[in-house]
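Hi all, posting the design record for the shared folder.

TITLE: backbone redesign
STEP: 1 of 1
STRUCTURE INPUT:
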């Protein structure tokens, strides 16, 4: 398993990280791993509610009817 050292991390950011780790009952290292994994492995999901204009640039190859059905099902 790799080791990551971060130099120059602002104290305020580290304090926020420690607080979040404590709230989640994790070590700082565990919290960093969870945050990095979420940021790097979870694709951004777009909601139809975020559309501005037609929003075609955000929806290439998306079946609009299927997407709306999935959005509605998620709210049930």
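Okay, here is what came back for every position:
SEQUENCE:
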């Amino acid at each position: 398993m790799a080791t990551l050292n971060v130099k120059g991390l602002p104290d305020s950011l580290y304090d926020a990280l420690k607080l979040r780790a404590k709230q989640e009952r994790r070590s700082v290292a565990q919290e960093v791993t969870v945050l990095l994994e979420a940021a790097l492995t979870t694709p951004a999901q777009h909601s139809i509610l975020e559309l501005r204009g037609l929003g075609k640039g955000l929806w290439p190859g998306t079946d609009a009817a299927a997407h709306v059905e999935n959005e509605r099902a998620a709210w049930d």
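COMMENT: DSSP finds three helices and no strands in the chain.
Let me know if anyone wants the other runs.
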